[in-house]
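As a next step, the fold was encoded as tokens, giving this record:
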Amino acid sequence: MLQRLERVPEATEAYERILARWPNLPDCWFNLGVLQRKQRQLQEALASYQKALDYGICRPEEVHLNRAVVYSDYLRQDAAAERELKQALALNPVYVPALLNLANLNEDLGRRTEASALYERILALDPRCLEALARYANLQPAAQSEERLIVQLESALHSPASAAEHASLGFALGRLLDGKGKYPAAFEAYSAANRANRASAAPGTATYDRKRQEELIDLLIRSSPAEAPNEVVDAGEGPQPIFICGLFRSGSTLAEQLLAGHPGLFAGGELDLLPRLASAITPFPQSLPSAPPDLLASLAARYRDELRRLFPNATHVTDKRLDNFLLLGLIKSLFPKARIVHTTRDPLDNCLSIYFLHLDPRMSYAHELLDIGHYFREYRRLMLHWQRRFGADLFELNYDSFVREPAAQAARLFEFLGLPWHDRYLSADTRGGAVKTASVWQVRESIYTRSSGRAANYRAQLSGLREYLSDLLPK
């Protein structure tokens, strides 16, 4: 009951009391592992899952799947995650959730052939697994994809399916149509996908409140610390963080993978460390200017400890959680010498690419073009404030400028970060490791310019957004 009510610490304590007396209850060990994972007690969760296996839980493949999620999503140990998934499939070769996760892991690691084969295997087992069909379609080079795949997606969209499945299929269809140059049809598919994505959200989570967003930005600006607290010591022990922020589809993954070509620099991806630390300053952000130096020092140490645990061999780690642009005041309070890379892109291209991206439906601004435009204006307003405050420590990396002259822009970026630059970092071959974003395949290609100026293909559909953002567009 406590678990269902999301009273996680109390539920954890109850399971621990039960297991202290009756340790041979595998389902209780499994439930304890689930709760420990929610509380980021990751090693404890792995141990509890193992106990569930040791005591003979039914459907052990589900336990291996949960262990794989801990290794992949939280500990960044992809090899261990792969081992767990293969163990699950050795126990149950037709266990579709493990097949889906293994295919997704292969995608993250850039193994297109292996991922495609797994999605084909899933579809052979269950032709109604529409998520597998959508993911398989997203793996295919859009311009060279076969027409039969487009027909297959269109047919699936006319079959009974959940709103979430319709969203996945619609975004995949829009991508293929866009790659074929069928722009009006692509826009129609993407619009339907966004409507389905909104419908899939929990009640009350998918409506964008413009006034509330404006009030949040006002509050962040008012609550900015007057100056970086001199008392906070940026100890420099462990990996040095490099923060990358901006909007989705602004070139942030390309920037991170470029930096990850440098020896000793690890791509941290979209870490959730800063939002969790912000919750320790209550109320946030109002209390940030008056936060005690010892609290800030403690939070900075917690952040560094987490980086050291996740990336023990790194000298630098990128933190690419994009909405950290909301938390630059916190970043500069914890790390006064922090360097921040702000990725930008042509406003219309950026907003259109967000509209074409299958985001979490709770990101309510992303379902309508003019809501994206409003979110863009408020983001730009806050970034101008941060630029005035922290300009010397902010580097704007413009995607359009970068793809036109990559070597020159990359050299400027590395100089800003105080890192030696070499032209070989531009090679796609240096971009190793897992990439857990929608840009997984783009960043594994050589740098190209075809996404720059993409909005020109949708001139008629973007007329309202163009007028709304007219004062922010390049002249």
About this structure: The domain at 210-472 is CATH 3.40.50.300 (Rossmann fold). The CA atoms of residues 128 and 264 lie 45 Å apart. The chain has a mean pLDDT of 92. The beta strands are 240-246, 265-267, 316-319, 340-344, 394-398.
